[in-house]
What does this fold into?
Amino acid sequence: MRYEGDVYRPPSEARSLIIQVTIGCSHNKCTFCHMYTAKQFRIRKKEEIMADLDDCREMYGPYVRRVFFADGDALIVPTPMLLELLDYVHRNFPGAERITSYGTAHDVIRKSEEELKALAAAGLQMVYLGAESGDNEILKHIRKGETAEDIIEAGQKLKRCGIMTSVTLISGLGGRVALERHAVSSAKLINAMNPEYASILTLHLTDDSPMAQEIARGEMELLTPDEIMDETELFLKNIDSPGTVFRTNHASNYVALGGTFNEDIPALLAKVAEAKRQRRYRLEEWRRRL
Ligand code: SF4
It folds into this structure.
């Protein structure tokens, strides 16, 4: 089993077997993201990935229940190869209940509905989409390479094809100037996608990232924990996405929230208000980067 460079996974995949089907991110340009800057993007050879699955079968036996395909946008892998890999996972681990992957909106849009339905039938249960914001100006500013319309289209397409979606947003991404716009447009994006899961991370930059340098030059301001709470409050007040499970359980967050839209929104707002009143925030030194 060979991992290349640092490997990232969503918090909810902590107990999953992580398999690198790609190395790095095919986009690798977002100004806040340091995750794959040291890696040159490539799709790994199918034989190498299968050899990793064989090693894992030897190490863990047939009992692996959850598998997560990394790195940054594993869904870019051509569908025939993904189908072979999904089949190989099931042959090695017949009890596998859940196979998930990172993907970009463009990866989803590029695939036909027939391809996505075939992936769903082969066991791809969920795709993690990093939306970051629902605001097109912010998406352009961070060089996301996608619009809110692309992200909504991808989420709706996955839903039609029977693949669940987990959407990630980043609090503080528009700085102080765009706090309100970021919160409201991100809520609208979630409402339009109605994903199974939505989460918010909080901006936490490495010093050498392009966005950290913008902040150092005074061109953008980081939000204080109170302002992050204001942004979250405004986001929650604009949400109408029945059934979406919502979390802020990443180590970058100041406050951990969890509940289901829409019924838990009053309780979530009460928790935000309480955190603000008591100023009970995760300490800066305990926060982790995105
Ligand atoms: S945020 Fe996602 S799409 Fe952007 S560079 Fe990082 S991994 Fe790639």
